[in-house]
Amino acid sequence: PKPSSAASDVYKRQVGTLIDNAYEACTEEKNQVLIEIDSQNDKLIFTIKNQVENIGLGEISHFFEKGFSTKEDGKKHGLGLYNAKMLVNRYHGEITVEIEERKYISFVVVI
User: Fold this and answer.
1) What's the whole-model pTM score?
2) β-strands 104-110, 43-51: how paired?
């Protein structure tokens, strides 16, 4: 079934947030971002993957908490992933984060 206009806007916002975060995390040396869109069993699957430096497993457990941020630029952060999680939950979807060999981080949204 085709998603409603409101649901489409929500999907765009949450995936946009994840893409923005991936590009903001890029450094001169670690600057690859992979975006994959797939579908299975009438569900859309968005995967946003980027290279990371020194990410700890302890940090990952806090990624979706309101106010948590790994950014240290003094600006207000910590709402993007929290809001994405709330939107995904609202539409009965799922968002997960995975680390591959401590070199890559992937956010997977299933809606």
Assistant:
1) 0.78
2) antiparallel
